[in-house]
Design brief:
Blueprint (H helix, E strand, L loop, with lengths): L22 H49 L2 H6 L22 E9 L6 E9 L5 E11 L2 E4 L4 E5 L6 E4 L2 E4 L10 E5 L2 E3 L9 E3 L4 E4 L2 E4 L15 E3 L4 H17 L15 H5 L3 E3 L6 E4 L2 E6 L11 E7 L1 E9 L5 E8 L4 E5 L5 E5 L12 H5 L6 E2 L1
Antiparallel strand pairs: 1-2, 2-3, 3-4, 5-8, 6-7, 9-11, 10-13, 11-12, 14-18, 15-18, 16-17, 18-19, 19-22, 20-21
Length: 387
């Protein structure tokens, strides 16, 4: 028999003859297909799990940074940062930290796989239920996420006292006008209270400060806190003026007992010899002043209600005193007793680094070369009159 191969007609596909599938093949397929599906699902699950873990790492680092700051573990908090900043580190110490705030929420702002940076936002709450939100930038360094420059800045350029107090710790600060300069302090997240232990006779006017990232706001319960100046100033408080006036009495006694008497730098205005001479009276070399009534004074701000500078803290004369001296009338050569009003003009409260005060002229009780000494020589007229 001759078998001839016949070419199929166009459009009529050639089909393989139906061949029954063997039972062993069917069993293998039944096992292989579910296995392939399981392995594929596992691969996708592993891939998404790895991606989720990568995305969670920046958030976990920011949370750890905030928790370390709140716990006062400065070393642990700084270890989670890039460490790059230009500000003073004097307040990056456990003693300056406060736990009077809480972490409300935080989450991933932006991140893409295989990048080396991310952004994480965080919201915290401080005193007065003040809430503050900030976005932190993170960098991937040597396989570890680090928070980049997460510090707020406390800027101080002038103070009325020679020290800064923050959360109970004190730092020396030069208040001399010719040498003072602006200082920037780095702050970790937290609450910062200035001058909880205010200097004598003064009270601090500012609210606590809430710091988060580069933000530093007044934690006074306002719904939308804005940026604030760090030092809010002092106010004079009602206090025991008896102690102040005891110091004033001692100061005046020492001043007038000095060999030069009222000619000494810092002695009361209006009692200088050359002012007496202007009244055609002359003081003898052996004259001695006598205070017959001491003035009564109170602390006061000499410019505004708020005290920002050392020159703002003066003595207000509540009641004038009286001083007496024997002079010679230039016209008659007769001795005349002169009486002069005694005030506290030109005297200030001078604070030291412990918050205690002394009385002195032009903010410096010990200096006779003060830049403003001309006020003692030429700025006041004498009101002495014959008794």
């Amino acid at each position: 028999m001759v078998v001839r191969r016949v070419k199929p007609e166009p459009g009529n596909p050639q089909r393989w003859p139906d061949v029954p599938m063997q039972a062993r093949t069917r069993r293998r397929i039944a096992i292989a297909v579910p296995l392939i599906l399981v392995l594929a699902a596992a691969g996708y699950t592993a891939r998404w799990t790895y991606t989720d873990r990568q995305a969670d790492e920046p958030v976990a680092v920011v949370r750890a940074f905030l928790e370390a700051s709140r716990a006062g573990d400065v070393e642990a908090a700084l270890a989670l940062t890039t460490g790059d900043h230009y500000r003073s580190k004097d307040l990056l110490v456990p003693e300056a930290m406060s736990a009077d705030w809480e972490i409300l929420d935080l989450g991933l702002q932006s991140w893409t796989q295989f990048t080396v940076d991310a952004q994480v936002w965080a919201t915290v709450k401080g005193p007065g239920d003040t809430e503050l939100t900030h976005q932190f930038d993170l960098e991937l360094l040597d396989g570890d996420w680090k928070v980049a420059d997460p510090f707020a800045t406390l800027t101080i350029d002038e103070l009325p006292v020679p020290y800064l107090e923050v959360n109970g710790i004190t730092l020396p600060f030069d208040i001399a006008p010719e040498t003072a300069f602006e200082t920037d302090f780095a702050l970790l997240p937290g609450v910062y209270r200035l001058y909880e232990h205010a200097p004598e006779l003064l009270a601090y006017k500012g609210e606590p400060l809430l710091a988060l990232g580069e933000r530093l706001v007044s934690a006074d319960g306002s719904e939308s806190p804005g940026l604030v100046e760090a030092f809010a100033g002092f106010a004079v408080v009602e206090g025991d003026e008896a102690a102040l006036n005891e110091r004033l009495t001692a100061y005046l006694d020492e001043c007038l007992a000095a060999p030069e008497g009222p000619e000494s730098f810092g002695c009361p205005f209006g009692l200088q010899d050359h002012h007496i001479d202007d009244l055609d009276f002359t003081l003898g070399d052996d004259n001695r002043w006598e205070i017959i009534e001491y003035p009564h004074a109170a602390p006061a701000s000499v410019v505004w209600d708020t005290i920002y500078r050392a020159t703002d803290i003066g003595l207000l004369t509540r009641h004038e005193g009286r001083a007496r001296v024997t002079a010679v009338d230039a016209a008659t050569a007769e001795e005349v007793v002169l009486e002069c009003p005694l005030t506290t003009n030109g005297l200030y409260l001078v604070f030291d680094e412990t918050g205690e005060y002394a009385i002195g002229p032009n903010q410096d009780p010990n200096a006779s070369t003060e830049f403003d000494t001309t006020a003692w020589d030429d700025g006041y007229e004498s009101y002495c009159e014959p008794a």
